[in-house]
Amino acid sequence: MATRTRRGDAGIFGEIATDVRRLHVGWMALRFPRQRGRGHAVMGRWTPETTSQQLRYYGWGVLGALGLLVAYPLTVIGLATRYYAARLDSTRTRLGVAGVTGLAVLAWGGLTAVAHLQLEPDAVLAVAAASAVATGATALSAGCSRVGGRSVSVLLAYPFALTALLLPPVVAALVTPSLEGVVLEPSYAFAVQLLEGPLAVGGLNELLRANFELAGAAYAAMWVAIAFPLGWLLGLAVALANLVRPSS
After folding, report:
1. How far is it, in rounded angstroms, from Cα 191 to Cα 188?
2. Where do the domains of the chain lie?
């Protein structure tokens, strides 16, 4: 049993080492020729010869190694995202955009019906509003995915899928005052952290404060604005995963 465990650990670490090596080779290939595989069939793999070339080559390599501290965890996220996206895309292929939309309507409509039977009118309105937003975003994501192409998936399909997850609670809180403390107040606190943190670079926070007020529909706009960059980040993660482990 212990031997089998050690072999399993060795296999996992071996796969990680292979993934990291592929990422680093891809990084080196951005700047230097003949880095992938064995390089040129006749000339072989390119290696630096002069001192200047060595400084540039190894400096670029060290920079890439540091970047792997971020790139490899992102690649792991990309592998997981690609796996589940492929399963969802398989469902979308079988059902079509209309079928996926109908399934979303059925699921969220059923939830709204249950809420109507068991909850107060305000809660029913919240569920209905969330249902409408989630169904619309799901339909947009499925439609963009059907168009095909990685660029469309990265630019639109992934962001709309995240919108379907992030926006419904916000819309529900906008139409139901009792949910403000649960959804809108934490959203406001999160916005303050963003403005005082990463958005403070270059004075972007002052620009946003001068031109926008976080109230009403602005909460929904904020989460849509968050969903799109997160979707693009997932797309980048999937691209890294495809570089390391090309999908069949």
Report:
1. 5
2. 95-244
